[in-house]
Amino acid sequence: MGELSHEDPSPFGAKIDTVMRLLQDIRRKREQAILFVQFEDQLAQVQRALTHYDIDGIVVESAAAAGSQLREFQDSSHKATKRTVIVLDASSETAAGSNLQNANHVIFMSPLLRESQYGYESTMAQALGRVRRFGQSRPIHVYRVVAIDTIDVDILEHRERRVDALIEQDGTHIEAPPAAAKSNIRDEPRAERMRLVREDGKFSLRPKSWLAAGCVDDSTSEVTNGNGKGRVQGWEDFSSLVKFSSTFTEDDE
């Protein structure tokens, strides 16, 4: 996570440039990554960017070629010159199945847009399951690339449900406030909707109850409902002006 840089414009845009710089860092560490894109037409854009940045990657564009390309990516982990990244369409069947624990970095170029909470969570679990397999010996790093003040933030805040905070790359771990965590019937922390906030110049995605003095729900005076979105007062709003349809929000709590 982190704010996209505002350097000289490139033909690829700030988001793809950010991903390419991240891949360059992964290459320097001699590690490998899986990059998930949201839409099929982004595959060609990423392919051009990989060529421009001279990053050795594999872009999987069809189910027919997926098997051999996935094996090529796996096999390269044992070679002197590794393929740094394999690029998959998260909405395609090519994103399902194979064990890719040779990679320990997972990058989502955009928050996943799904019609239901179940669809979002199952797709995310399937994507992360590619590297969270028996035999994985290295720490796993997961990156969500988000453009602030866009629908990226709306989707992430609406669909991501967690009991802990997500921090900006190289950020500091954030502990839950003592009285903030909501609990389920077994008195365990309950996953809840998140909010993107900036504190001391760093972004983080935190459970909404953490942002108030105690456990907050949408009926308290500490929550506003601007544009149909429950927001905790006193924190900057990085979402867009989009208001989701009832189809998108029908499984809300």
How would you portray this structure in words?
Pfam families: Helicase_C (PF00271). This protein is of the alpha/beta class. It is 26% helix and 17% strand. It is built from six helices and eleven strands. The radius of gyration is 19 Å and the shape is globular. The two termini are 26 Å apart.
Keywords:
single chain; 253 residues; alpha/beta; four-stranded antiparallel sheet; 6 helices; 11 strands; 26% helix; globular
Q: Can you list the strand order of the major beta sheet?
A: 2-3-1-4-5
User: CA-to-CA gap between the ends?
Assistant: 26 Å
- Would you report the number of β strands? 11
Global morphology: globular
Provide the residue-averaged pLDDT.
Answer: 83
Largest sheet: 5 strands, parallel
Contiguous low-pLDDT stretches (5 residues minimum) are 213-221
Overall SS class? alpha/beta
Q: What's the SSE pattern?
A: HEHEHEEHEHEEEEEEH
Summarize the amount of helix as a percent range. 25-40%
Helix count from the secondary structure assignment: 6
**Cα Rg:** 19 Å
As a percent range, the share of strand residues is 15-25%
